[in-house]
Amino acid sequence: MTCGSANPLAWAPPFTWHIRASSGASRPPGGELEPALLLSGNNDLPNPPASLFPIPTTTPYGTQVQVDWHNETTGASGTSVSDEEMLKGKPGIPVNRTWTGVGTVAFTVTARTGGGWWWLNTQNAVCRGTISVLPD
């Protein structure tokens, strides 16, 4: 899936998120492996320069991802929110696992990108999709 985003940094260009959704198994805190909707992704902003030591950057980003989902097979629905990434030279999709149960799942991904932290001049990119979550 692709979805466009304005850049939270006034001097930087808009960009496009490339988000991949897959079916897999993940372990909720204190639990056993369960079927889950797994997200990963990237964008078309340039990579920061490689270095052995941290380089201060003029383009720090923070990202948080929210997934609103509805399992069309079971009728269950919910919302999950990822951990936050902050002060990154290039925004990315934080680890996101959504335990939806087995079935056909319709979902909406909201990638929130901000300047340094996701909540600072937040720009939302919204993607929608459907996936079959299979038993693990």
Q: Quickly give the structural class.
A: mainly beta
Question: Sheet with the most strands?
Answer: 5 strands, antiparallel
Count of individual beta strands: 9
Question: Averaging pLDDT over every residue, what do you get?
Answer: 89
Helix content: under 10%
Distance between the termini: 24 Å
Number of domains: 1
Enter the CATH topology name: Immunoglobulin-like
Shape annotation: elongated
Contiguous uncertain segments of 5+ residues: none
Please compute the radius of gyration using only Cα atoms: 16 Å
Strand content: over 45%
Question: What does it look like?
Answer:
The protein is mostly beta strands and about 140 residues long. Strand 8 and strand 9 form a beta hairpin. It has a single domain, classed as Immunoglobulin-like. Strands 4, 5, 6, 8 and 9 form a 5-stranded antiparallel β-sheet that branches. The chain has no helices and 9 strands. It is elongated, with a radius of gyration of 16 Å. The model has no long low-confidence stretch (mean pLDDT about 90).
Mind sketching the topology for me?
Blueprint: E1 2-5, E2 15-26, E3 34-43, E4 61-71, E5 77-81, E6 85-88, E7 96-98, E8 103-115, E9 123-133
Antiparallel strand pairs: 1-2, 2-3, 3-7, 4-5, 4-6, 4-8, 8-9
Gist?
Helices cover 0% and strands 54% of the residues. The chain starts with a strand and ends with a strand.
List keywords for this structure.
mainly beta; Immunoglobulin-like; 4-stranded antiparallel β-sheet; 54% strand
